[in-house]
């Protein structure tokens, strides 16, 4: 009994120590960035046109442009040139990578959810938003959301809609580690369609050679905002990110980037631009 | 049941240790089904890999050389490539080439699904090792014993089934068990082709609930238990088949 108590006491002390360490760290990540002269960004390379590789292997995309903007801001704020190191992540590991400090910021087409907010510090205003739809062969007879009930759909591991949609439509989901595998499974006929993000589906369909036979089947629903995130505890870095996000909406940077990357303009970005321009 | 759920919910609220499988019935059931599928996958591939091993070892001894070369090629291919690469090769590489059926929507669907491909890939992978293990056992059976059997009128096949194999199995049982234990653990790679076994379900759950460390521990305990039970079972078999004076106890 006493041993148990002592252990419990030890755990409490450890917990307190961690809590103290957490608060004492304000600005710690920013200091680290300054010292290294480098910010490490967790980012996607499997999500054209938000993050992908060009034929030469260079990582590019809408989110990469925004990270470049962060780099400019950090260089100005810290008074020394800051480089960017990009760590490619997938949906299933991105939150953990940031949480463990493998990177200083996370910008990886991630939807803002309360569960994620518990673990990482998500920046407001949100920089983008997308909803859920189904992409399938043109000949597939699905017209409304109820038509997918009980069917097999492909998706990727870690996508936030998996559990909700699996329950709501009694789906059989084939979730693969990467988007490429998931799409290959769709083309092989392993599933009747792909449960996916509308922004991703729209950009895929621009590649007629591979996706000429496919189309977006259902109206987008459950549109949710995306969040850029940093670790909990560094309010200075968080403030730089918040200012950047406000600025992007104010100046219409994301509106321009949508144009640059050939993305169908989203209402979210338009509305945010109107809202912040007025301020 | 209710009190268990309440306890784990309180554990989450008070310590942040989030074991959803113990308080969310949906998550719990999913994980149980995952364990069930892991067991199914393990049992099927263990049995099939044994068949592959026995047949392969017999073919290694036939007079017709091309058959022997075939077995040799098979062993080299499956022993010298990683099982995960084999699984991808089967599912994405070969999977698209097999005949298709039409589903309810009139779309073409490959006849073998991901679970079946996983069983095939795992059986062939472990089977390649089993062939070599059986061969080592067969070669350890004294020539004189085989000759005696032939002298008594056994054909090559009959002496293989009734004399050589029973003795060979007893000799190679320890290394066979090793390989099969490995196979049971290797079933986890089926998660890569979306077979909803224990690791895949755990991955889904930790993506939904962001309780990675907790689920990692649950997965570890799950496999420890499953493999522990399997090892217990095979060592019982080992003891039951023990021939005094012939095999080391």
Automatic annotation (TrEMBL), chain A:
Signal peptide residue numbers: 1-26
InterPro entries, sorted: Bact_solute-bind_prot3, Solute-binding_3/MltF_N
UniProt keywords, alphabetically: Signal, Transport
One Pfam family linked to the record: SBP_bac_3
Keyword Protein transport on entry: no
Gene Ontology annotations for the cellular component aspect, listed alphabetically: extracellular region; outer membrane-bounded periplasmic space
Residue span, Solute-binding protein family 3/N-terminal domain: 38-265
GO biological process entries: amino acid transport
Family the entry assigns: Belongs to the bacterial solute-binding protein 3 family.
Protein name, entry field: Transporter substrate-binding domain-containing protein
UniProtKB/TrEMBL annotation, chain B:
TM helices/strands, residue ranges: 35-59, 88-108, 215-234
Membrane topology: Multi-pass membrane protein
GO cellular component, one term: ATP-binding cassette (ABC) transporter complex
GO biological process, one term: amino acid transport
Keyword flag Plastid: no
Subcellular location: Cell inner membrane; Cell membrane
GO function term, MF aspect, one: transmembrane transporter activity
Keyword field: Cell inner membrane, Cell membrane, Membrane, Transmembrane, Transmembrane helix, Transport
Domain of life, per lineage: Bacteria
InterPro entries: AA_ABC_transptr_permease_3TM, ArtM/GltK/GlnP/TcyL/YhdX-like, MetI-like, MetI-like_sf
Start and end residues of each ABC transmembrane type-1 domain: 35-231
Matching NCBIfam families: HEQRo_perm_3TM
PANTHER family with a match to the protein in the record: ARGININE ABC TRANSPORTER PERMEASE PROTEIN ARTM, MEMBRANE COMPONENT OF AMINO ACID ABC TRANSPORTER
Family: Belongs to the binding-protein-dependent transport system permease family. HisMQ subfamily.
Protein name: Amino acid ABC transporter permease
